[in-house]
Amino acid sequence: MSIGYANLLKELKNITIPKQETRSNWLQRPLSDAQLRYAALDVVYLLDIYHILVAQLQKDNRLFWVESDCDAIVDKLRNTDNEAHYYLRIKSAWKLRPDQLAVLKTVSAWREQQARENDVPRGRIIKDPVLFDLATKLPSDMQQLKRVENISYRFIDEYGKSILCLVNQTLDNEVDYPEQLEQPLTKEQTRVLKLLKQRVANIADKLAIPQSLLVRKKDYDTLIRSYCDTGRCQLPPSLLGWRQSVVGDDLQTYAGHLLSGKSL
């Protein structure tokens, strides 16, 4: 799916750059001549690489693919409230009741703010499994908070009172409870998903691009659930644009036949 700068340079221009300075002391001043050369080599070929990749994309009529995906990424970052929706990315969140989900949503958003303010990974504040257990137990006092699985004493000392306040405030606002999340796919739906993935793998192999670049796991779920909801498969927005003719239309037809039990 991805390739490092050194390997990309080796593949495109057959140039090998030294990596001995990777773990040297970059806090020292002045930097050594070897470090300065290493830093320069990390950027000096970027323009050449850009021209080579653009030429390849134009030759394969795929430059539009890249530009469209870049635009979609920027639009998503501009228009998505990541703090409010991060709880949806936590595993097993579908198991929670609406009140528990509300707490998970609130504390997840609080963690995002803390991570940004402190400029640290969100897991350094509190890890996903601990968040899930906190939302499951809904602690109302310090003793109950200490029973949350794998929660650290340091976290409790620093943030315990704030967390309890968030939990209590959230539980008081029943009108803001989110709806319970959809359960995982059934056994039969999972079987269909595997067949769809194989279909996409074959298409990706012919195009010589990674399967995950064509269709994300979430897209398969959406496609399958749309049939259950409406009786026909509907493509998610992420499978429109250039992906629709490349893989979307074929996947939509194939999924419809599989889910309806018709033979192809």
Can you give a write-up of this model?
The chain has 264 residues and is mostly helical. It folds into three domains: 55 residues, no CATH class; 95 residues, DNA polymerase, domain 1 (Orthogonal Bundle); 74 residues, HRDC domain (DNA polymerase, domain 1, Orthogonal Bundle). The protein has 14 helices and no strands. The protein starts with a helix and ends with a helix.
Spell out the key features of this protein.
DNA polymerase, domain 1; flat; 14 helices; 66% helix; 264 residues; 3 domains; mainly alpha; single chain
CATH fold-level name of the largest domain? DNA polymerase, domain 1
CATH superfamily of the largest domain: HRDC domain
> Could you estimate the helical fraction of the residues in percent?
55-70%
Which CATH class of the largest domain is shown? Mainly Alpha
Low-confidence parts: none
Q: Outline, from the CA principal axes?
A: flat
Please tell me how large the radius of gyration is.
24 Å
The mean pLDDT is: 92
Helix vs. strand class: mainly alpha
From the 3D coordinates, which CATH architecture of the largest domain would you assign? Orthogonal Bundle
How do the strands and helices of this protein lay out in sequence?
Blueprint: H1 5-13, H2 33-44, H3 46-59, H4 63-79, H5 82-85, H6 98-118, H7 122-125, H8 128-137, H9 142-146, H10 153-172, H11 187-207, H12 211-214, H13 217-230, H14 242-260
Helix pairs in contact: 6-8, 6-10, 11-14
Brief synopsis:
The protein is mainly alpha-helical and 264 residues long.
